[in-house]
Design goal:
Number of helices: 4
Number of strands: 36
Radius of gyration: 30 Å
Strand content: 35-45%
Helix content: under 10%
Length: 515
């Protein structure tokens, strides 16, 4: 029968759950070691190809790591993959360099202290062997160029110390004493050499003691140079920056505005989204995150504290007051409580690599949205459902306002996000997948693993089913009976763009895992 027949196509089996293994750790703490506030990692970002990884910390520093596991072949990993070269080793990184991106500042007009903490890092297009990236604190964005510079070293001056006296006067016996008195620093002041003539001339046969420096070796140093500073454009704290696929522009977002910048112009930006009401008492929601579409330079999405995501098209108008699409999930009748709006606030959004889906993280769940369907999320994943009875306590200690990030795998088959006790969750998001893995940011990631079941939810239509993955619906203890630590928060993590490798931050330590 041909392909137009009534036979339904076979549904592909969901991929089997990944087995995660420890790869590397940078900045590992010893038992009982106290963590300095300035060393806590506050941002993680892979570059476009996954060859470099950048982290920012609360001390305003940016640390770069470089991939090393493919250098032995002499060819790039992308070339090896295209040639079907067997790649058995998992991604390995080493420390490359670090630099001080931001310093603490003080706004005298507002009597406001601006801390140096790095909020976000974004890689830009590399050029001429140099790396480019954006980093931002609460108020100021900086554009950095990191490049290798050859530093030449002078090994010797090639001057015989026995022939140097005083201030460099020549004591060579080949020069008569009467002439020597007029020679200083290798320059002859005697009339016989016409030193005060219109042209500087040298004695016959040259000056015997004049020597040139000898450069015998050179070394390569990495130098980070600040190319641009984009300042004074945000009244509120910057929560997001995102590079555009055109390689020329980027956006920055605070609570009420999103600005569009050109990388080459630091003294001017365009306000493209403004949700500030005429009367601040009428303010009902704020912007929490914003990101450009990975391939469409005219499309971006931003999330709000009410749990909604808006897709906007820059071609529609200069000021994008109206959205092209709105994604939100309506709450079930009778389920509203004091904490409903707080836990509905979206803390992070990410586009999938192909731009078809948006992943959002609120306090309790991960939601996967199809940009072509705004009826509701196509999948919802419960991250830590056991916390729901403890929301009052979490509100009292402000943990309910923690901003957890999320990430998607490069193939779009899985999503990940962090939780408490330095745990992070990995979910399979293909139809029929039951993958829901709990891992700990330590050298033994499987120590607290909890496999959880999945349950289908109501149908959204004839061909779309929203799948709800239920998290471990237990009390506040893990599989080993240990109580959860709400001070150990795994807020920041990133997925390698082309491989199953995750980098995550636990306080001042950077852990990397592969599958």
């Amino acid at each position: 029968m041909d392909g137009v027949s009534g036979v339904a196509p076979a549904v592909a089996e969901p991929p089997s759950p990944l087995e995660w293994k420890f790869s590397q750790v940078f900045g590992e703490r010893t038992a009982g070691e106290e963590v300095q506030e300035v060393d806590i990692i506050s941002a993680i970002e892979f570059d476009k190809f996954g060859d470099h990884l950048a982290t920012g910390d609360r001390g305003g520093r940016v640390v770069l790591f470089e991939r090393t596991d493919v250098k032995e072949s002499g060819r790039s990993r992308r070339d090896l993959e295209q040639a079907d070269y067997p790649l058995s080793r998992h991604p390995e990184f080493h420390y490359k360099t670090e630099f001080q991106s931001h310093e603490p500042e003080f706004d005298y007009l507002k009597s406001l202290e601006i801390e140096e903490k790095i909020n976000k890092i974004q890689w830009c297009q590399a050029a001429n062997g140099a790396l480019f990236l954006l980093s931002t604190n609460d108020k100021t964005i900086k554009y950095w160029k990191v490049q290798e510079k050859k530093v030449k070293k002078i090994s010797e001056l090639n001057v015989d110390p026995t022939k140097i006296a005083g201030n460099g006067s020549i004591t060579n016996s080949s020069v008569p004493f009467s002439s020597r008195a007029g020679l200083s620093n290798g320059i002859c002041y005697g009339q016989s050499y016409n030193s005060f003539s219109n042209e500087l001339s040298f004695p016959p046969g040259g000056i015997p003691s004049l020597r040139l420096p000898v450069i015998t070796s050179s070394e390569t140093n990495l130098v980070a140079r600040n190319r641009r500073v984009y300042a004074h454009a945000h009244d509120y704290h910057i929560n997001s920056i995102s590079s555009n696929s055109d390689g020329e522009t980027f956006i920055s977002a605070d609570d009420l505005r999103i600005n569009l910048w050109n990388l080459e112009i630091s003294n001017q930006s365009f306000n493209i989204v403004d949700v500030k009401p005429a009367n601040m008492e009428d303010l009902t929601e704020v912007i929490t995150s914003a990101e450009f579409h990975p391939t469409q330079c005219n499309t971006l999405a931003y999330s709000s504290s009410k749990g909604s995501i808006r897709l906007i098209d820059l071609r529609q108008s200069a000021l994008c007051d109206s959205h092209s699409k709105l994604f939100e999930e309506h709450e079930a009748p009778g389920s509203r409580s004091f904490f409903t709006e707080i836990i509905a606030s979206v803390s992070d959004i990410k586009f999938s690599k192909n731009g078809r889906h948006i992943l959002s993280r609120d306090y309790m769940t991960l939601k996967l949205w199809d940009i072509n369907m705004d009826a509701g999320p196509v999948a919802t994943f419960q991250v830590h459902e056991y916390l729901r009875p403890k929301l009052c306590d979490l509100y009292e200690n402000d943990s309910i306002f923690d901003k957890f990030e999320c990430c998607l795998s490069g193939d779009g088959l899985r999503v990940a996000t962090g939780s408490y006790s330095n745990l992070f969750r990995v979910f399979g998001c293909t139809p029929g997948s039951s993958e829901a893995t709990t891992l700990e940011a330590s050298k033994n990631p499987q120590r607290r693993q909890i496999q959880t079941p999945s349950r289908p939810s109501r149908s959204l239509g004839s061909s779309i089913t929203r799948v709800v993955r239920r998290g471990a619906e237990t009390s506040g203890v893990d599989a080993n009976g240990n109580s959860f630590d709400f001070t150990a928060k795994l807020l920041h993590l990133a997925w390698h763009p082309s491989e199953n490798s995750i980098a995550c931050a636990a306080a001042n330590s950077l852990y990397m895992y592969y599958a």
